[in-house]
Amino acid sequence: MLIFVCGGVRSGKSSFGEQMAEQLQTDSGRLIYLATAVTTDEEMQQRVKKHQQDRCAKQKQWETLEWSMQLEEAAKHLTTDDVVFLDCVTTWLSNEMFQESGEMPSEKALKSKMICAVHALEAAAKHVVIVSNDIFHEPVSFHPQLFRYVKVLGELHQYIVLKADTAVRMECGNHVVMKGGILN
Amino acid sequence: MYFITGGACNGKKQWVVTNFNEKIQNSCRWYCGYQEDWTDILELQHTEADTVVIEGIEHCLKAYASEGSGRSGALFYETFVQPLRHWEKACAGRTLIIIGTDVTKGVVPMEQETRRFRDETGRLFQYLSQHANDMYMIWFGIAKKLL
Questions:
Q1: Is GTP-binding one of the keywords UniProt gives this record (chain A) (predicted)?
Q2: Residues of A recognised as catalytic
Q3: For A70-98, how does the pLDDT look when each residue is reduced to its tens digit (9 = 90+)?
Q4: According to the CATH classification, is domain B2-102+117-141 in 3.40.50.720?
Q5: Does domain A2-179 have CATH number 3.40.50.300?
Q6: Distance CA A117, CA A82 (A)
Q7: What is the pTM of this model?
């Protein structure tokens, strides 16, 4: 099953997505946190630490896989009973799009690569919960790279929602089910 | 009048193409605000097509508002949308579809002109919502009917 959770900053999307993942876990499978963030500064380190502490405080046991790009490779470390929580598409796309080498993949190549990775994760695990940010409600930048980023992210979201069994929009800590259903 | 809104790159255009396919195929003037001159909106009321689609109305408003401080969303509605409402009502079978990207929810922009554009877009969208027969919000390809 593929689940998509999207909302603004501090809308509770990670917390809600984690809850969903925990509910979907079975005795035979693991709970995998697939972290895409790269810690480039102290603020980011603090954010990562906060997420890690939150997960440690939970009753359920989480395993973390850190994979900033080429998530299809991460799929090789999964079993078909695992529940994967991917946090998040926004950082993953930044990592794929703005590479240190300066290499600039085409929009088509990027989308196709990331879509293949989503399919690989879906095929490798029992359930995949994907979290992403809603960054689409402000004047669109004319900066070419930023415009490209927004466009590719929007198109990826459209594709994931199309393929998802469940799609949820987060608003101020509340979830709005836009597609499919959720467990109680 | 149909008013279709939602965030940028959320599939609004594709939703209109899919859901109004027959009208668009038959007789349609598709005006793209991102590519065409905003003043051409005034010409749309003289079209011989049965369906008029305005894509990117917020972009037209931006160009319009940048040319004078008194140019508001209200005035834009009166000057450019109202004539098209009359055009639509004048003859059975005519349809007006307006697509606008919601740009009103981000951080307050640093530039005054962008702040004003955002404010006036919010106001214009309220007018469009008040006068639309149907209004849909598109979220990554999924439509939610608001009116």
A1: yes
A2: 51
A3: 999 999 999 999 999 999 999 999 999 99
A4: no
A5: yes
A6: 16
A7: 0.87
